[in-house]
Design goal:
- Helix 8 runs antiparallel to helix 9, helix 9 runs antiparallel to helix 10 and helix 14 packs antiparallel against helix 15.
- The chain has 16 helices and no strands.
- By secondary structure, the chain is mainly alpha-helical.
Amino acid sequence: LAIREEKLGIHYKTAILYEVIGSAVLQQHQNLEKAEEMFRKAVDIKLQVLPQNHPDLLDAYQKLAVPLQRQDKFSEATKIQKLVLAGLLKEHGEDHHTVVNAYVGTASMLQAQNRLDDALQMLDKSIEVCSRLQQRDIDNFDPRLLEMTFKQKAGVLSAQGNFEGATEIFKAVLFLNKNVRGEMDTKETAEAYESLAKLYIQQEMANDAFNALTKALQIYQTLPGDFRSLLRIGEIEQTLEMLLPEKESNDLNEVGLEMRAQGDLETAIQLFQQALDIHNDNYDFHPNTAAIYENISAVKEEQGLLQDAVSASAEAVKLRRRNPGDDHPDTKARMEAHKSLLTRLLFAIGAK
């Protein structure tokens, strides 16, 4: 660099070397301030030697936005990303792969500032561009553009609390890997299954989370044993161990429901009780325990054991009032059902 500065001065090759050094200190040493300094110098030189909206100049701006974002300098990073987007639109029009990258980059900046609706608008535009590019030349369309957009959108939806929407997005990512890219045993696929599992956990869908993590683990175990893969395997195994009691309880509960539907109430009660025992042995509190008590109450009611049905229902009410709370529709519905059941019991006692 010193030689280039001395011999060439303000020159394109000098700017390139600044970018090389900036990338190195960013990736290898995580020195954000030094990386920002290097990328700023590269931008300053390219501004002087390249025409406006030149792809290499816009690329330099995008490199500068990375350390700015990581230092929480969101205002400047967002301005840069919007400048890049405007330049690409002017240079290439909207239907170009670099525009997709710019939309996703801008969305990332907006998400970091909690401007989630604005981020979604950028990502929806990116999806529209991908759709047009695919329709125009499906053989040469790079599905990674769509995958990148989907992953970013799933992150925004998760930040909004829309876990169901984010789940559907990650299912689409896995569909792309399998049916478009023809890849299933890659690190990216394993990471997608992990992300899907986290969303299932957020929705208290233990069985689905367990299955997704199991697939992620199987893929990691087939990959070369680099440090990160080994680390992920260890963490996934710990999470699977944590999820196992809930999965076993859910399996018993589901079979219990099948037995009840077939009229085998004694077997159903035994299965529900086993599911309840797993919860009591492993959790101080679990939101799904209420559903097990409700199932026990329903079977006891069908058996004509109203006192036992009321007792189980009372436990369900107590748990639902604790979580999700008195104002939640599920809690209100349970409380109404409990009142009705209690009234029936009181009338039965009165009749006797």
